[in-house]
Amino acid sequence: MNDTIETINCPACGKEMHKIFMQESGSALDVCLDGCGGIFFDGQELKHFDEQAESIEELKQTMEGKTFEKTDETVIRICPVCGNNMVKNSVSVKHEITIDECYNCGAKFFDYGELNKMREQYATEKDRQQDFLSSTYSEIGSKIDALELQNNMNRAKRSKFLKLLDKIFLGR
Ligand SMILES: [Zn+2]
Ligand SMILES: [Zn+2]
Known about the structure:
The protein has helices spanning 57-63, 114-121, 125-170, and strands at residues 18-22, 27-31, 39-41, 87-90, 98-101, 108-110. The model has no long low-confidence stretch (mean pLDDT 86). The chain is elongated and about 90 Å long. The chain folds into 2 domains: 18-123, no CATH class; 124-172. By secondary structure, it is of the alpha+beta class. The protein has a 6-stranded antiparallel sheet with strand order 1-2-3-6-5-4, covered by helices on one side. The protein starts with 17 loop residues before the first strand and ends with a helix. Bound molecules: zinc ion (2 copies). The site of one zinc ion has 8 residues, from loops.
C-alpha cells in the first residue's frame, strides 16, 4: 500500500491529521498534532522507524513541547484509510506495547508515546530479531520438555503393561 495523499482523520480522536515528511525514508507520516499525538503508519511505513538507528528527527521536532489530549485506548478504532475495524495487537515479544492494527490494509496506529517506547527496546533490526529468536527458542524448548515428560510417562506405563503380560502368560 502506498502513502496516503489525502489528509485523514485520527482514528483515536477524530481530528484531522498532519502530514510530516520524513527525509531519510522519503515517506510522509500522518500525525495527530491538534489532538491526541497519535501517529498513523500506512502499509509498510513502520519498518523505517521502529528501531533507534532509524531517524525520526522531523517527528521529534514537530511534536516537541506539545501537550496532547488523552484518549481511551480500549475503544475499537476504525481504520481511516479503508474503514475496517482495527485490532489491538502487541508489537513486541515482551507484549508490553499494544497498538491498533488494520489487518485489511496493514496500517498501524500508535498512541502518543508508544512509538518511542517501542524504539527504546531495540537499537537495530538485528537486536529485534535476536530477541524474537531467543524467545521462540525458549518457547519451543519448554514444549519439547513437556513432550519428553509425556514420553517418559508412556514408557513407564508400557513397562507396567509388559510386566502385567508377563504375569498373565508366564506366571512370573
Ligand atoms: Zn488524535
Ligand atoms: Zn485499513
